Amino acid sequence: MNNRYGTLASWVYNLDKPVGRSFGDVEYYQQRLGESEGPILEPAVGNGRILVPLLESGFSIEGFDASDEMLGYCQEECSKRNLSANVTRQTFEEFSYGKGFAAIIIPAGSFQLVTDTTSATAVLRRFYDHLVPGAKLIIDLDPIGSFLGPTGSVRRWTTEDGDLLTLTDHRVETDYVAQTTLAHLRYEHWRDGNLVKSELDLFKLRWWGVEEFLMALQRTGFVDVVVSGNYQHGRAPHKDDEIISFEARRPR
């Protein structure tokens, strides 16, 4: 199953990107959301790496994710901090709320999990429909270069109990027409040299050109699109940037 974020994948994600770790994005979103009045939505909220600090900063933010395992980590982190976690299990394609939001944020390239162009266009429209007039949408995308780099890496983490988790990442397909890559992600849990459990996830992503995504936002109806590189708002992306952020607004 593609992009599943099962038990081991979610465990590794939470060890590698725990709440409290920022890549410059936590501070960026705190700054860019400072003038938003009203509830904020984070689709693909994951383990709450972004949501929890925003809650602690006083923002009214809720989220959803397709992975029960990831939502469990998010709820656990909120519980540790006596925060109310309004997070639900929903998908990009089918999420629904009976209210409008002052902002929707999709950090860390999560939108690129939607690999079908028609579906991605429909998701953008769904974002638009869930924003109140004048509200903003902020989406981070990984640049094309991050999709086409070296493959076959092996990474490892040590758990609190001293067990070993490993991740082998092997790209098996690159479709230059569909602008997608497919990787086999093999997660393994080891204890005292013995394999306890393994998981194989088929991880598919889509890359977007900067102008391509800007035009997709405009076709959806968004205005005042600002494209920024490496969380420096208003600074046009450079070829070596690690992240590209798009901020757009629903017209009033």
From TrEMBL:
Gene Ontology biological process: methylation
Which SUPFAM superfamilies does this UniProt record tie to the protein?
A: S-adenosyl-L-methionine-dependent methyltransferases
Q: Which domain of life is it from?
A: Bacteria
Methyltransferase domain residues are: 40-134
Q: Which UniProt keywords apply?
A: Methyltransferase, Transferase
UniProt cross-references to CDD domains, sorted A to Z:
AdoMet_MTases
A Pfam family cross-referenced in the UniProt record is Methyltransf_25
Q: Which GO terms describe its molecular function?
A: methyltransferase activity
Which protein, by its recorded name, is this? Methyltransferase family protein
